[in-house]
Write a structure and sequence with these properties.
It is a single chain. This protein has a single domain, classed as Jelly Rolls, CATH 2.60.120. The radius of gyration is 19 Å and the shape is globular. The protein has 333 residues and is mainly β. 46% of the residues are buried. A hairpin with a 4-residue loop joins β7 and β8. InterPro entries: Pirin, Pirin_C_dom, Pirin_N_dom, RmlC-like_jellyroll, RmlC_Cupin_sf. It comes from Streptomyces chengmaiensis. Pfam families: Pirin, Pirin_C.
Length: 333
């Protein structure tokens, strides 16, 4: 797994352990096993949600897909050809492999090990996400995530924006005892900020725990909290609920701290316990959803479908512009 790492965690700034005398650790509301399926042109996924979890417990998040890890033979790699979005943000985090993105605003680029693509669809955009020519020709391992983040009604009509967040731009931190590496992709954690600019207040972390290590994080009041395991096994919460690869822990709302622990002995190919830990401030607005469109009313969904059919969400191919790192693509007319 070529995600960003460091040789010596002790050289990193540390996230302070929450004081148990001042705040309680959140308990685990439930553990969900991701469901297998296929997306795009036929690539395999494990979908952590939506599913059996009530949307109010994941708000402002709409979906989490775990892509792979799958080892493609030459010529077999698959992606998601041109398709529309409106009303939310897609966050793609790549661990292995490489994905080439292009959109109808002229934005795009290649993301690979440790990189994040943050696309705010806003008022609407067309894009595709495909394996690079090199990966298609040679094959190789593809391992990534896509997280959908809702936008409040006031932001759904904003112009589209694209952020290309390279792995070396992530904020790297250590747990209080040096047993875990924390890659802060977006949001604020104990006074440290990640590089991702978010319309909806969230925190997104990739944490790697050494065998037997425990990670305790301060967590803001009013944010929900989830942890998805994608390598190794361990436990979550003060009750030590078991958590293994492909499972999502949903934390309760009470308390200002989160805790996860890696099993002292890791079974299988993983040497460590890897998790996505994320949460955000719920939007608490009505949701009308139809495929790649997420709005507030059925009338807005009907409008999105008509706008797409009429070409008002953009056309392809687009004339690509040079977009600086972290910048936004030029907006459509």
């Amino acid at each position: 797994m070529p995600a960003v790492t460091v040789d010596d965690l002790l050289l990193l700034k540390r996230v302070r352990r929450p004081d148990p005398a001042l705040t309680a650790e959140r308990r685990v509301r439930g553990v969900i096993t991701a469901e297998p399926g296929f997306e795009g042109a036929g690539f395999p996924i494990r979908r952590a949600f939506p599913g059996p979890i009530a949307p109010r417990h994941t708000d402002p998040f709409l979906m989490l897909d775990h892509v792979g890890a799958v080892d493609y033979a030459p010529g077999d790699a698959k992606g998601a050809p041109w398709h529309p979005h409106r009303g939310f943000e897609t966050v793609s985090y790549v661990l292995d492999g490489a994905v080439a993105h292009q959109d109808s605003n002229g934005g795009g680029g290649i993301i690979e090990g440790g990189d994040t693509q943050w696309m705010t669809a806003g008022s609407g955009i067309l894009h595709d996400e495909m394996p690079t020519e090199e990966m298609l020709a040679r094959g190789g391992v593809m391992h990534s995530f896509q997280l959908w983040v809702n936008l409040p009604a006031a932001d759904k009509w904003n112009p589209p924006r694209y952020q290309d967040i390279r792995g070396d731009k992530l904020t790297l931190l250590s747990s209080a005892d040096g047993g875990a590496l924390i890659r802060l992709i977006a949001g604020e954690l104990d006074g440290h900020r990640g590089p991702g600019a978010t319309a909806t207040p969230i925190i997104l972390v990739h944490a790697t725990l050494s065998p037997g290590a425990r990670l305790e994080l301060p967590w803001p009041a009013g944010f929900n909290a989830l942890a998805y395991a994608f390598g190794g096994q361990g436990t979550a919460g003060p009750e030590n609920r078991g958590l293994r690869e492909g499972q999502l822990a949903l934390f309760g709302e009470e308390g200002g701290a989160l805790g996860v622990t890696a099993a002292a002995r890791q079974e299988g190919p993983a040497d460590d316990f890897d998790l996505l830990i994320f949460g955000g401030r719920p939007i608490r607005e009505p949701i009308a959803r139809y495929g790649p469109f997420v709005m507030n009313t059925r009338d807005e969904i009907a409008q999105a479908v008509e706008d797409y059919r009429s070409g008002r969400l953009g056309t392809v191919p687009a004339e690509h512009a040079d977009v600086p790192d972290g910048g936004g693509a030029p907006t459509a007319d």
